[in-house]
Design brief:
Elements: H1 8-17, E1 22-25, H2 32-45, E2 49-55, E3 58-63, E4 69-73, H3 79-96, E5 103-109, H4 112-123, E6 127-131, H5 137-146, H6 149-156, E7 160-164
Parallel strand pairs: 1-2, 1-6, 2-5, 6-7
Antiparallel strand pairs: 3-4
Helix pairs in contact: 4-6
């Protein structure tokens, strides 16, 4: 799922060049470890890396038969998603432009698990890489209502999903994983 910045024929040509890629889900200010792990696997497989950012402030209105997705904003402030995508592109470029890895960034819309799943299908991706969520009560509430992106990806498609831990590991002595 892409936003309206590319034409259907552009997207088809790009998808052809990105077959068998590794896809990594990236959010602004995300721990760099997730990107590093995804880049490592893309190098090991000898395939491009596709950095996917999902704009959850937009939703899919309809999809053309050729796969081109049309979307609309949920909120009037539709520049927020574009700004986030630009921030993701800039932070990723800072890391990956120093390497010989072929990579591209894609802006997806809607539900993160479904959007990444559809992109993986279009590209016949070899691997999907996502990070764990941050610990905290707000994230716990969000996950209660929406579910874990990683868990939903692993149960709704056949590709391998690498879940990269973020931050410090919870010690075994700590009973609650997400303290309030």
């Amino acid at each position: 799922m892409t936003d309206n910045t590319s034409t259907p024929s552009d997207e088809a040509a790009q998808n052809a060049a990105l077959q068998k890629a590794v896809i990594v889900g990236v959010q602004p200010h995300q721990d760099r470890h997730v990107l590093d792990e995804a880049a490592k696997f893309a190098r090991l497989f000898g395939v491009p890396l596709v950095v996917a950012h999902v704009d959850v402030t937009r939703f899919v209105t309809y999809e053309d038969p050729d796969g081109y997705v049309h979307s609309a904003p949920i909120d009037i402030n539709f520049d927020a998603g574009a700004a986030e995508f630009e921030a993701v592109q800039a932070s990723v470029a800072e890391v990956l432009d120093k390497t010989d890895l072929t990579w591209t960034a894609r802006q997806l819309v809607g539900d993160p698990a479904l959007a990444i799943k559809q992109l993986a299908q279009k590209l016949d991706a070899q691997l999907i890489v996502v990070g764990t969520r941050k610990r905290g009560i707000g994230e716990s509430i969000r996950e209660f209502f929406t579910g874990s992106v990683a868990a939903r990806l692993t149960h709704r498609q056949h590709r391998s999903v690498l879940v990269v831990p973020l931050g410090e590991a919870v010690p075994d002595s700590q009973k609650e994983i997400w303290p309030e």
